């Protein structure tokens, strides 16, 4: 976490400007202290701010034994400071997040979302927003030309990297090159490594001006309200011979099964997409792509468990309602078993889960017995409110 802010409407010590009675650094640090997915935090500050940073850390009281917080001194530029922070990483750190301390409204679920994208294939991921305003290139006081914004995005933090990748990229830079790098992903790009971008969040703005500070004061001053979120999911798969029919994690006796990369459990897939939709975390294709052999013939109930783990620190599941659309077989004898399987995977009461079945009276592909579809609805409540 880098806490030096360069040229702005605030002095260099902006990390210690108070918002709603606490230093800016406190709020950004809290995000990572509260996250169960973060075990090591390194704060990079100017040498004469080490004591101020220590005071902020002490304000959290006892910090989990599984989490360490270190403070180190930065360099003359942001990138030199980041490199100093990277030098403090323990050898156990496999993934590193680099975050601007001035972005105090990063949500824990979005941090989890970013971390979930790191894999053997994706070793660098950053959040970014599409530009909505018309972009002009200027020269002096005059417009030089209009820039095509379709291929432009505004980058945010945290930027997330495989530790080995970011260390390698920084290791190849000279001190002069460090001074001209605008962010960490550009250093990775410079040496030919791919960087994936996912949609960021407008709320994750950087406090740069006096107006930003006023906006932050207003947000922090608002009373918390109960936030209920609803998501919908839909999935459909073709029926084929030679496959087992798995629905809601239950093997159903039938002469055909559903075709798919995983076990093609259409009912569970719809529920997974509904949960992800309610939490604004993409869809199952994002988390379990059918191009990845790891998920070949995977048990969808096991994948549902992973979705439950992904959201558990941020949301509790109030209810799941799902409808299976199929002509045959009759699933009423298996509904309670399906509800049980789903409740076990999500670690919620079976009373919170509803499963229904319907036919299309011989209409459409499901009515002709060519496939099955499912619709899921999930209601989540934000934790801590």
Number of strands: 18
Q: Kindly state the percentage of residues in helix.
A: 25-40%
Separation of the first and last Cα atoms: 27 Å
Q: In what range is the share of β-strand residues?
A: 25-35%
Structural shape:
elongated
Can you tell me the CATH architecture of the largest domain?
Alpha-Beta Complex
> Mind telling me the CATH class of the largest domain?
Alpha Beta
Overall number of domains: 2
* Overall average residue pLDDT: 88
Which structural class is indicated by helix and strand composition?
A: alpha+beta
Give the number of helices.
Answer: 13
Sheet having the most strands: 5 strands, mixed
Our Rg estimate from Cα atoms comes to: 24 Å
Low-confidence stretches: 2-12
**CATH superfamily annotation of the largest domain:** Spore Coat Polysaccharide Biosynthesis Protein SpsA, Chain A
Task: Provide keyphrases for this structure.
385 residues, alpha+beta, Spore Coat Polysaccharide Biosynthesis Protein SpsA, Chain A, 60s Ribosomal Protein L30, Chain: A, 2 domains, 5-stranded mixed β-sheet, 13 helices, 26% strand, elongated, disordered N terminus
Summarize the SSE layout with pairings.
Elements: E1 18-19, E2 22-23, H1 24-34, E3 40-45, H2 50-58, E4 68-73, H3 78-87, E5 95-98, H4 108-116, E6 124-130, E7 135-139, E8 142-147, E9 153-155, E10 159-162, H5 163-171, H6 175-178, H7 184-190, E11 196-199, H8 210-221, E12 228-240, E13 245-247, E14 250-252, E15 257-258, H9 266-278, H10 284-287, H11 300-311, E16 315-325, H12 335-346, E17 353-358, H13 364-367, E18 371-382
Parallel strand pairs: 3-4, 6-11, 16-17
Antiparallel strand pairs: 1-2, 5-10, 6-9, 6-10, 7-8, 12-15, 12-18, 13-14, 16-18
Helix pairs in contact: 5-7, 9-11, 11-12
């Amino acid at each position: 976490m880098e806490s030096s802010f360069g040229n702005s409407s605030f002095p260099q010590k902006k990390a210690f400007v108070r918002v709603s009675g606490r230093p800016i650094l406190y709020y950004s640090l809290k995000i990572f202290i509260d996250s169960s997915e973060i075990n090591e935090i390194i704060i990079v500050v100017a040498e004469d701010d080490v004591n101020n940073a220590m005071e902020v850390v002490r304000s959290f009281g006892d910090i989990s034994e599984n989490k360490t917080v270190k403070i180190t001194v930065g360099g003359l530029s942001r990138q030199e400071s980041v490199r100093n922070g990277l030098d403090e990483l323990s050898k156990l750190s496999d993934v590193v997040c680099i975050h601007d301390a001035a972005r105090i409204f990063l949500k824990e679920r979005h941090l989890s979302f970013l971390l979930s994208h790191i894999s053997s294939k994706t070793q660098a991921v950053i959040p970014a927003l599409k530009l909505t305003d018309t972009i002009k290139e200027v020269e002096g006081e005059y417009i030089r030309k209009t820039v095509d914004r379709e291929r432009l995005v505004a980058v945010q933090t945290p930027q997330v990297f495989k530790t080995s990748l970011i260390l390698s990229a920084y290791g190849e830079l000279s001190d002069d090159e460090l001074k001209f790098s605008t962010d960490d992903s550009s250093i990775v790009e410079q040496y030919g490594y791919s960087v994936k971008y996912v949609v960021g969040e407008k709320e994750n703005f950087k406090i740069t001006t006096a107006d930003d500070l006023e906006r932050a004061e207003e947000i922090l001053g608002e009373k918390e309200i109960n936030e209920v979120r609803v998501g919908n999911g839909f999935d459909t798969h073709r029926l084929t011979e030679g496959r087992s029919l798995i629905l809601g994690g239950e093997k159903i006796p039938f002469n055909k099964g559903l075709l798919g990369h995983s076990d093609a459990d259409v009912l569970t897939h719809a529920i997974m997409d509904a949960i992800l939709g309610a939490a604004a975390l993409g869809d199952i294709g994002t988390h379990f792509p059918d191009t990845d052999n790891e998920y070949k013939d995977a048990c969808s109930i096991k994948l549902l468990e992973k979705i439950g783990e992904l959201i558990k620190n941020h949301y509790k599941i109030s209810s799941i309602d799902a409808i299976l659309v199929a002509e045959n077989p009759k699933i009423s004898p298996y509904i309670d078993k399906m509800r049980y399987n789903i409740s076990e995977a999500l670690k919620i009461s079976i009373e919170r889960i509803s499963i229904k079945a319907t036919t299309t009276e011989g209409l459409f592909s499901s009515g002709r017995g060519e496939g099955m579809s499912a619709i899921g609805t999930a209601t989540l409540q934000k934790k801590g409110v």
